[in-house]
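Input record, target 12 of the design panel.
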């Protein structure tokens, strides 16, 4: 391997040479005969004397910094040309090359200033600085020229003129190398100076310098890799020509041509060695340091470019020595960097010819790639799945069954791109081995087609996934890659209707049900052309091609299902999904359909089937359809029969003195279920179902022996009656008597539901509670919003007794342990787990229903204290619901919410006192639990102290009053009974503004006696610690409110904030007066808005262009950068700790330049990766020399950075989205 010399950090200016510039483009000197004669090190150590000049120095009198002068006016600068992007980049580069030929010092000075200006620095490197100052001195001088009031620089600026700057900047570097590749880059001057400059800037603490120079260096490296690749090709061609000429007969051999070819090969080899030195200098001087820079954008640039090098010149770069950087960086904290790693690997795995070189990398980092499919960044997860698809395409033995299963379940992800990528992986894995149909043979259709087995495979996969309600999401995931398979409805119908072939196993009932569900979803997807709920932001506009495809699919499904559906309904057991399919095509057999619907309603009592029939009738009963009258008549006849039958059965069922038998109860229940299913989608007000249902419910209350299911469906049916009546009244066309009737019925029904809350049957109580919560929410004060004041008589606010019963129901039926819930029993462990999940789902819905009453101010907010105090104990089950409730209540009334939070803590404290007694141990688990809950409550107030100022102050006020509320029965010398509550209250002290701390402390002293202030016993420690928390920083008058700015976001070196005009401090006495007024029962507010606006707000400190302005901590010696860890006294950072750091969306901490060091976790690499001796060795020409076989690198699978695994968001019922 060719070792590059040590890179210097100063500019170097070699003495004048006889370098000839006879060509300046790629095409003028194809054989590189005019290349520089002298080949040396990339960075010479000599320094140009002050009086020396570059070649042609006298010809630059008409130029300034390499630009022509016209009439004393300087032409536009190189930076401005690139920024505007209006000129052809090749002509810009050609102008610079022409300037370089006249005076290379001035041209290079122009190029140096170009890089300085592209970094956003307003300073200019002068000729004197260029000649006499060292590299570090120039960079230090330029650092001082930065405008630190703004952290923006060209690569990060917004605006139209900066959008294309990065592209133009990169293009300039690429074209510059391309145009100079046959002459100038070999002159030992231009490239030495540029590489030395970029290396020095890339090591700067100024982010703008580091970012811009790293991008320039990486693009320069990419351009040099392209030059090296061309040289390699030319060397192979030259060697082939030489061998062909040498193999000729002696008489026909041209010795002159042989000598010419030998000379040309020698020059190419010298040029290649020179390019190797340049690339070594860039790789060791820039890449190995910046690929783990503190800034994610810089790390991403490095990884993106190394991927380009490995793909462009795989013979030189695609080996374990370079792949390991990508593997290590896959553990980066930032999704942007992880994404670049995956996209770089995709370009490599896409080429099957490179698979052999990726075997060791795949074996070492496959597990990491699989885990990235669950990345918290969806873009990263998508690319990880696509990468695994390419790995699967190249070799199926690499991925184990467990690896594949971890991707399979992602087809049910709520994020559509993730699901689509997983669907493509699933399709490649399960369906890639299907036999292609011979075109010469007649095409098989139906059950005998090739798609039959594939459809069965889809059904089997759907059943094994055990997410049967999510067939729509499975279909949507595979729709883009397997549309032809999923649209083979003829085959699906054949599988359901035709008898199995000889030797073929018939589908079971469970498999048929799954196939019907999948067929329904495919019909819906093809007809509606939009993803299922939760996977799209809304209906998008279809393109002309998509509209044509949609029309063709609708036509074809119409032709198939018009004939097939009646057969399916007649020959197979009824399935609710069949009726949904009718919605999507023209019905030619309407009478047959209506007759079948009536027969099915009369035969079946399954809720899903009855609701499917109801929805089908609702879809057909559209007044715009010509078939409306026929369908309406058929529907009315069916409902007349059902209501008449129900009234007749109910009369016999409720006869006094007779005990109803099971047959009568079943007849009443089945008829009531049919009516309820239809009442959900149809207005049945004209049949007056309220009277009969209310009579049935009232009898159940009086007798107490009404069957459970009858009561549940009667409650649901009556609920529908109320809602349909409200819809009719809301239209404004009803009479006043209708509103009076509705008001009476609603109140009577609410009272009935309240009575059923005391039922002994749990299912009945849950139904009554759910309906009651819905009615209270619907008929609350919200009903008159939107200009509906006419509905004000219908407003119904629950009485205190009803609120108490609702709260008691929640406490008794929701906040219970899993083992206490015996509502579901199961035979096996799997069924038992499913039952527990279903029971938890039901309890979450009940809690969400009650929390909505709190949010919409239907019940008093203070009732939420009983909910909030369960936050820690039931965090896994209901934490999200309780937290959202706290957030919504705070938005409604901050002060009342704070009072509710402190009330919940007081309730827990009282419960603890009653259980442990006054002499409890403050280190007990009960007290520590209350204190931890207080800490969690404190965190919910956020960072903006100004917004929560009043609420926090009132919280302290109530807490102080509670602590001193009950004196100690033993006398004044002993602490109050609740004094320990101050220890809990101290968790909120950090949320007080400093001036408010002083005021609250003064309020605390009103409850203290002189003797209390002198006490130092352990029993008085809560008072002492609370006083200390109020006094910490309370006397600092310079403290200001930080609104939404974390102290961690500040930099080490900052300018003094300028005073804010018009801002003044709030007087201390004002807050104290407000507390006093509040405590005495006055109506004054803690702080009025005018006073709050006078609170001083800290001006944001100016953004520094430097990310780290301190000496970076060395986590490892320089001479052993990635080798065996050295002992040190600093505690190693645990980057794999879950739930911390940037993986939880925290602010990015200020870290060292080498951010990604994990010293205690990197094992010794077998090759001893010393970056100072790692060189780029381009592969030899195939006929020139054999490339030495490299030892394989043994990767360290330990993560250098945090893993970023998220919990996949599967589609489920959100308890708050009812």
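The sequence produced for target 12 reads:
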């Amino acid at each position: 391997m060719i070792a590059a010399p040590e890179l210097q950090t100063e500019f170097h200016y070699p003495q004048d040479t006889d370098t000839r510039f006879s060509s300046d483009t790629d095409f003028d000197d194809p054989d590189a005969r005019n290349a520089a004669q002298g080949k040396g090190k990339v960075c010479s150590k000599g320094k140009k004397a002050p009086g020396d000049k570059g070649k042609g120095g006298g010809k630059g009198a008409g130029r300034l910094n390499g630009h022509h002068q016209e009439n004393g006016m300087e032409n536009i600068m190189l930076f401005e040309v690139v920024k505007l992007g209006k000129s052809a980049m090749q002509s810009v580069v050609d102008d610079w090359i022409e300037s370089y030929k006249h005076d290379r010092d001035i041209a290079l000075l122009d190029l140096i200033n170009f890089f300085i200006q592209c970094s956003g620095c307003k300073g200019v490197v002068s000729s004197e600085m260029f000649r006499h100052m060292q590299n570090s001195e120039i960079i230090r001088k330029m650092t001082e020229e930065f405008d630190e009031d703004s952290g923006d620089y060209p690569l990060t600026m917004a605006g139209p003129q900066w959008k294309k700057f990065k592209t133009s900047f990169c293009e300039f570097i690429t074209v510059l190398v391309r145009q100079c590749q046959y002459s100038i880059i070999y002159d030992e001057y231009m490239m030495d100076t540029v590489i030395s400059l970029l290396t020095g800037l890339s090591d700067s603490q100024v982010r703008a310098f580091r970012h811009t120079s790293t991008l320039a260096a990486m693009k320069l490296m990419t351009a040099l890799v392209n030059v090296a690749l061309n040289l390699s090709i030319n060397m192979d061609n030259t060697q082939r020509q030489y061998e062909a000429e040498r193999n000729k007969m002696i008489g026909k051999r041209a010795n002159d041509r042989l000598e010419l070819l030998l000379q040309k090969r020698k020059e190419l080899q010298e040029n290649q060695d020179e390019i190797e030195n340049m690339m070594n200098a860039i790789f060791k001087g820039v890449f190995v340091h910046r690929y783990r820079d503190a800034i994610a954008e810089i790390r991403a640039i490095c990884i993106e470019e190394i991927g380009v090098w490995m793909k462009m010149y795989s013979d030189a770069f695609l080996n374990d020595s370079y792949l390991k950087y990508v593997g290590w960086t896959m553990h980066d904290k930032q999704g942007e960097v992880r994404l670049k790693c995956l996209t770089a690997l995709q370009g490599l795995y896409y080429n099957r010819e490179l698979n052999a070189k990726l075997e060791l990398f795949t074996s070492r980092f496959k597990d990491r790639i699989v885990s990235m499919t669950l990345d918290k960044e969806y873009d990263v997860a998508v690319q990880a799945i696509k990468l695994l698809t390419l790995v699967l395409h190249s070799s199926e033995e690499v991925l184990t069954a467990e690896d594949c299963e971890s991707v399979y379940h992602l087809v049910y992800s709520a994020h559509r791109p993730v699901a689509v990528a997983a669907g493509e992986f699933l399709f490649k894995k399960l369906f890639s081995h299907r036999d292609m149909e011979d075109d010469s043979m007649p095409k098989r259709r139906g059950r005998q087609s090739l798609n039959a087995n594939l459809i069965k495979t889809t059904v089997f996969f759907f059943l094994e996934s055990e997410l049967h309600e999510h067939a729509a999401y499975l279909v949507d995931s595979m729709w883009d890659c397997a549309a032809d398979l999923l649209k083979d409805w003829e085959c699906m119908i054949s599988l359901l209707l035709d008898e199995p072939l000889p030797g073929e196993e018939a589908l079971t009932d469970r498999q048929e049900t799954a196939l019907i569900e999948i067929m329904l979803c495919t019909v819906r997807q093809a007809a509606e052309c939009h993803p299922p709920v939760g996977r799209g932001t809304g209906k998008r506009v279809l393109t002309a091609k998509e509209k044509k495809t949609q029309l063709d699919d609708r036509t074809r499904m119409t032709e198939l299902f018009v004939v097939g559906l009646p057969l399916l309904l007649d020959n197979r057991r009824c399935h609710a999904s069949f009726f949904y399919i009718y919605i999507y095509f023209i019905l030619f057999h309407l009478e047959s359909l209506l007759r079948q619907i009536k027969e099915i309603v009369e035969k079946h009592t399954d809720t899903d089937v009855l609701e499917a029939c109801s929805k089908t009738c609702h879809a057909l009963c559209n007044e715009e359809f010509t078939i409306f009258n026929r369908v309406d008549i058929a529907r009315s006849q069916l409902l007349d029969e059902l209501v008449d039958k129900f009234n007749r059965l109910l009369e016999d069922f409720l006869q006094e003195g007779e005990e109803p038998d099971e047959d009568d109860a079943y007849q009443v229940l089945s008829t009531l279920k049919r009516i309820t299913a239809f009442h959900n989608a149809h207005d049945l007000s004209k049949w007056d179902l309220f009277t009969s249902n209310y009579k049935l419910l009232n009898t159940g209350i009086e007798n107490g022996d009404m069957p459970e299911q009858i009561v549940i469906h009667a409650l649901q049916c009556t609920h529908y009656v109320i809602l349909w009546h409200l819809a009719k009244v809301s239209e404004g066309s009803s009479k006043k008597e209708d509103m009076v009737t509705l008001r009476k019925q609603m109140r009577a029904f609410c009272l009935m539901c309240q009575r059923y809350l005391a039922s002994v049957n749990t299912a009945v109580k849950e139904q009554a509670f759910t309906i009651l919560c819905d009615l209270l929410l619907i008929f609350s004060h919200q009903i008159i919003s939107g200009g509906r004041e006419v509905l004000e008589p219908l407003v119904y606010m629950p009485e205190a007794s009803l609120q108490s019963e609702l709260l008691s129901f929640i406490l008794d039926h929701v906040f219970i342990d899993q083992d206490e819930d015996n509502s579901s029993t199961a035979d096996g462990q799997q069924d038992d787990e499913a039952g527990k999940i279903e029971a938890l789902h039901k309890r979450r819905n009940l809690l969400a229903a009650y929390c909505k009453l709190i949010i919409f101010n239907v019940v008093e907010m203070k009732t939420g204290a009983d909910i909030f105090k369960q936050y820690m104990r039931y965090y896994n089950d209901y934490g999200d619901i309780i937290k959202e409730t706290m957030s919504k209540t705070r938005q409604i009334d901050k002060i009342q919410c704070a009072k509710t939070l402190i009330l919940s803590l007081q309730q827990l404290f009282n419960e603890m006192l009653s259980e442990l007694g006054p002499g409890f141990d403050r280190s007990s688990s009960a007290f520590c639990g209350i204190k931890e809950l207080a800490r969690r409550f404190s965190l919910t107030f956020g960072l903006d102290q100004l917004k929560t100022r009043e609420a926090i102050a009132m919280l302290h006020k109530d807490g102080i009053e509670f602590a001193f509320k009950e004196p100690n029965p033993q006398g004044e010398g002993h602490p109050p009974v609740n004094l320990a509550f101050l220890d809990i209250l101290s968790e909120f002290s950090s949320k007080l503004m400093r001036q408010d701390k002083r005021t609250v402390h003064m309020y605390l002293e009103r409850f203290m006696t002189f003797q209390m202030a002198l006490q130092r016993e352990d029993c008085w420690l809560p008072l002492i610690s609370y006083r200390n928390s109020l006094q910490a920083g309370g006397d600092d008058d310079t403290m200001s409110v930080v609104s939404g700015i974390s102290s961690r976001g500040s930099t080490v070196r900052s300018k003094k904030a300028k005073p804010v005009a018009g801002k003044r401090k709030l007087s201390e006495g004002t807050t104290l007066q407000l507390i006093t007024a509040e405590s005495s029962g006055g109506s004054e507010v803690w702080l009025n808005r005018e006073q709050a606006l006078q609170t001083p707000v800290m001006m944001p400190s100016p953004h520094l262009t430097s990310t780290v302005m301190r000496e970076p901590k060395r986590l490892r010696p320089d001479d052993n950068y990635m080798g065996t860890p050295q002992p040190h006294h600093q505690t190693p950072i645990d980057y794999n700790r879950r739930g911390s750091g940037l993986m939880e969306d925290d602010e990015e901490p200020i870290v060292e330049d080498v951010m990604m060091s994990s010293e205690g976790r990197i094992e010794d690499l077998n090759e001893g990766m010393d970056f100072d001796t790692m060189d780029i060795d381009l592969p030899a020409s195939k006929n020139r020399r054999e490339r030495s076989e490299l030892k394989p690198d043994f990767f360290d699978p330990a993560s250098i950075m945090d893993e970023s695994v998220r919990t996949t968001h599967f589609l489920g019922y959100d308890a708050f989205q009812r």
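The longest strand covers residues 67-70.
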